[in-house]
TrEMBL record:
The keyword Ligase applies. PANTHER family: ACETYL-COENZYME A SYNTHETASE, ACETYL-COENZYME A SYNTHETASE 1. Gene3D superfamilies: 3.30.300.30, N-terminal domain of ligase-like. Belongs to the ATP-dependent AMP-binding enzyme family. One of its GO terms (molecular function) is ATP binding. This is Acetate--CoA ligase. Residues 50-96 form the Acetyl-coenzyme A synthetase N-terminal domain. Its EC number is 6.2.1.1. InterPro entries: Ac_CoA_lig, ACAS_N, AMP-bd_C, AMP-bd_C_sf, AMP-dep_synth/lig_dom, ANL_N_sf.
Amino acid sequence: MSTSAPSLLLSGEQLDRRLEELLQQKRFSPPAHFAATARGRGAAPDVLAESDQAAFWAEQARTLHWDTPFASVLDESNPPFYTWFADGTLNVSYNCLDRHVLAGHGDRVAFHWAGEEGEQRAITYAELLRDVQRFANALKRLGVGKGDIVGIYLPMIPEVVVAMLACARIGAPHNVVFGGFAPEAVKDRMKVSAAKVLVTADGGRRKGKTMPVKAAYDAAGELDSLEHIVVVRHVGIDVPMRPGRDVFYDEILAAADDVCPAHPMEAEHPLFILYSSGSTAKPKGIVHTTGGYLTGVSSTHKLVFDLDSERDVFWCTADVGWVTGHSYIVYGPLCNGATSVMFEGAPDYPHRGIWWELIERYGVTVFYTAPTAIRACMKWGAEEPNVHDLSTLRVLGSVGEPINPKAWLWYHVVVGRERCPIVDTWWQTETGQIMISPVPGHTETKPGSACQALPGVVADVVDEKTGESVVQGQGLLVLKRPWPAMLRTLYGEDERYVKTYWSRFGPETYVVGDAAIRDQDGSLWIVGRIDDVINVSGHRLSTAEVESVIMTHAKVAEAAVVAQSDASTGQAIVAFVILRGELEGTPELEAEIREHVARYIGKISRPKCIVWIDELPKTNSAKIMRRLLRDIMEGRPLGDVTTLSDPAAMADLARRVAAAQ
Ligand code: PRX
């Protein structure tokens, strides 16, 4: 359906013209060469009757290895506490490793790992299985048993996968914390989950710089629950080790036995906790379980990426510390016996063409990244990808935030060379698995739309007051049927789980927290969050968490944090700050507060700019009117300010914002 024959390797004005031309096209049919053989060609995502959904997931679940086959599929007797396959038992690490080795695929590469400084390691399924068994034994010797929580705070190195699967093998739920989070934030997350062991590294590398990780963690203070810290020697720097508590990963691995049988776990046994930001300062410990989660991630990994484990080389550029890494670097691909790429570094180090170089080197066929990264690559120019052979690519994926049509088209033309279907995948930490996405080879795509719910998923757009379906137009995105990889609760906070997701329209409707538009064809367009969650570069951050950290700064009296649209990161954080006493806002103080946030949460939470103010706009009942702050930042007309306690203050505020930009 292209308006003219696609030409390859465009750049400069020619590329701009092609993008303009395609911008008019609006719809993209599955490429004929792809549709003929695609896995999804028989899948009609919208035709499953409600009664068939559970049966559909049961069929997917049966592709796994069960030690005890399940008879019960979905138990809906106590909504919203749903269970899946509850009377079955299985082991996730067995499904991800032993199964493939026993089938004769031990020599298949599980990960092509590329280090920042050009190091390369290929790790086969057999090698991974050996290390996982050893590390599982080592964890047992450290006193970790079924149900004990193990914290993991590691860079993007193969040991992170070993640690996760070793936990799964012995039924110890892991709590992985993104390597970019500050040690203080890690300590908090270890504390609330009462972690018994933390697996971390001597140090990390970022764009050529080395920084201590273990020592920084130590400096954040003691935790009673933490009995041991396991240290992976990654960058080779000196590490303070406390005798009796701290051990080196390589030493305990070398001392451990090679064989650790995979114990069957109940399907509902927790596999991991992953902390995610919510609308309060306290992060939510999202709990995922064994059987349903593995069913959801393995089946969507196959369908959405048209995966063929014999042929494909899959690369998801996320960090394992986020749910995308859990589901589509570790569990989905390994369960499917796929070969993946894992890259330690940033997309612009050692140079801005490194991603394309790696795609060419490993013959990547399926590439999955975030819109922010695509926008950065756009800025760096088509010349970078154009000098590489990207002809192996078949499917391109996007995740984490809405993708603007311009970025979608650039991805399509410059990276996909107009041959590869794009899957814009919508999901969340809570959903565990992709929920809304085109099926490549089946769905007609529209740049900017995540299209349709996948088979077995029932998504709806509803009126925010009545809960009635909005046939065409904007409303709240909800999920109306349970799905296997759904979160089961918030760790230790059942009530918060019910209140956050299931209270608005009753315990059978999961309220996502996003607004969406349904167009005339029924395609879904995700608009963004409706709560106080900010999405910076596809990373979910809580305004309340950033505010509460800013308020711990000695010179700050009050703060309010809002999102502002940003051309490269999607959204950016803006902080409105009232200083104590007679203090004046200065660039030095701005830098100090930004660093304060980086220190307590992580660099990604650092406000892009700080606006110094004397007063925050508040209602007569003293609630901060964030809507007004957002409107000011977006340059929108202010609308109704009559409920403000001091309407005149808004003009002054607008002046200060202009001065801060
Ligand atoms: O607002 C949606 C946005 O990211 C949120 C979930 O964030 P998190 O739990 O960190 O998981 C991110 C990766 C799965 C959603 O509520 N989001 C995610 N994917 C998309 C998206 N927004 C628009 N389009 C997407 N494809």
